[in-house]
Amino acid sequence: HDDHHHDDDHDDHHHDDDDHDHDHDHEHGDYDPHVWVDPVLAQTCVDNIADGLAEADPDNADDYYDNAEAYKNELQDLHEQFESALAHKHIDTLVLAGHDSLQYLAERYDFEIHSPQGVSPQDEATTSDIIDSIELVNELGISHVTYDYFESDNLAQQIVAESDAEEVATLTPAEGSTPEWNDDGWGYIEQMEEINLPTLEAALDAH
Question: Region Disordered: what ranges (predicted)?
Fold first, then answer.
């Protein structure tokens, strides 16, 4: 009887996950502005910027479009790096202990994001959310709990300390910078290549 009860709990757990995924998709459509984290969608952003600049400054329109094409080629190369690196991942769920700003990236490269918080930086994780995250980490054998570079790592550290995970790892929504990154000449592509890609490879066991 106990085993049967455990199975019921297990089914309920997955049912809750399904509900979470449904809400997650809904939030994505309504609230997540971070479209640029997907290198393919970022190319459309570049086109839109070039169109706006060309309209405002027609005399230099050719230069804007040439620069846009060159940058879109870099973005396409970036996309192919991610696609190749994550093609053989062994884990399909990323635990992001911070606000969920990488949904478009997850959709592009076919993984799920479990966030105890949600899309808004103002959202706070509840005790129940944290327990769910710890259980998920243990259930899926997740070794890395990720967090946003520009946010606190306290929640990620707590989940690692109370679960079987081994370490925290940083991600960035590529919407900010640091003096060090500026000194190194890092922009969007470098943040994606040097921070997000290695972290995703580790967290999704894609090595």
Answer: 1-31
Please give the average per-residue pLDDT across 99-115, as a whole number.
94
Q: Is the pLDDT of residue 206 over 50?
A: yes
Residue 64 maps to a domain: no
Confidence of residue 118 (pLDDT cuts 50, 70, 90): low
How high is the pLDDT of residue 120? 61
Confidence of residue 98 (pLDDT cuts 50, 70, 90): confident
Sequence-distant (≥ 6) Cβ neighbours of residue 162 within 8 angstroms? 130, 134
pTM equals 0.81
Residue 176 domain-assigned (yes or no): yes
Phi-psi region of 192 (alpha: psi -120 to 50; beta: other; left: phi over 0): alpha
Whole-angstrom Cα Rg for the chain: 19
Amino acid at 25: D
Smallest CA-to-CA distance from 71 within 54, 53, 46 is with 46
* Owning domain of residue 192: 2-38+83-203
Q: What is the 3-state secondary structure (H, E, C) of 4-71?
A: HHHHHHHHHHHHHHHHHHHHHHHHHHHHCCCHHHCHHHHHHHHHHHHHHHHHHCHHHHHHHHHHHHHH
Alpha carbon separation from 110 to 5, 17, 89, 126, 207 (Å, rounded): 33, 17, 10, 27, 16
Report how far residue 59's alpha carbon sits from residue 141's, in angstroms, rounded to the nearest whole number: 57
193 belongs to a structural domain: yes
